[in-house]
């Protein structure tokens, strides 16, 4: 099978937020879709290995925060490549609380759902959510998964439904972030970057980059 066919399916990029008991947590996801308009219901696919999966099951609620093209890349790094089990992802993050759930302020909008059903697959849980609330927060263009890969040059975490290992031939020396997969391809040589430089996607230091 040619797995590249999956790249032809349109995906968005979202931060899924929920509660870890009374503590806000969440992670990045790209597989969510509207199922019905009346009553409004959405489906969300979440890897079993994501701590957010467990928290959604326990709380029974989740919010979809729709990221825009002008989203701060470090937001993707924090929610996409770190675990809420180990850190407070909301430390220093600007957010509100709606229907008891954390809602990120600097996004295109949000949709809050109550879990009404779920389906288990071998690797993911598909949550069916009844929409409780939602609003548009900015006129920024929603970020697509294609935009994330082609413009921001980020890669999917291994827990993502769309993760496909890449084995591309290298035509020139490149430097790749060992945490999020960001490929540095700017005109300035990587070696000449100051030691204080950090990955624009996940924020790790220059020392976390590997030569390919």
Describe what you observe in this structure.
The strands form three sheets. A seven-stranded antiparallel beta sheet has the order 2-1-5-8-9-4-3. Strands 11-10-12 form a three-stranded antiparallel beta sheet, with no helix packed on it. The protein is mainly beta. It is about 10% helix and about 35% strand. Mean pLDDT is about 85; it is low at about 155-165 and about 165-170. It has two domains: about 10-150, Pnp Oxidase, Chain A; about 170-210, Single Sheet (Rubrerythrin, domain 2), CATH 2.20.28. The protein has three helices and twelve strands, in the order E-E-E-E-H-E-H-E-E-E-E-H-E-E-E. The longest helix has 9 residues, at about 50-60.
Summary of the model, kept short:
By secondary structure, the chain is mainly beta. The chain has 3 helices and 12 strands; from the N terminus they run E-E-E-E-H-E-H-E-E-E-E-H-E-E-E.
Which quaternary structure do these chains form? single chain
Mind summarizing the main beta sheet? 7 strands, antiparallel
Number of domains: 2
Q: What's the CATH class of the largest domain, please?
A: Mainly Beta
Strand content: 35-45%
CATH-assigned fold name of the largest domain: Pnp Oxidase, Chain A
User: Which runs of at least 5 residues are low in confidence (pLDDT < 50)?
Assistant: 155-164, 166-171
The named CATH superfamily of the largest domain: Electron Transport, Fmn-binding Protein, Chain A
Strand-pairing-aware structural class: mainly beta
Computed over alpha carbons, the radius of gyration is 18 Å
The percent range for helix content is: 10-25%
The number of distinct helices, counting runs of at least 4 residues, comes to 3
Strand order of the largest sheet: 2-1-5-8-9-4-3
Q: How far from one another are the termini?
A: 28 Å
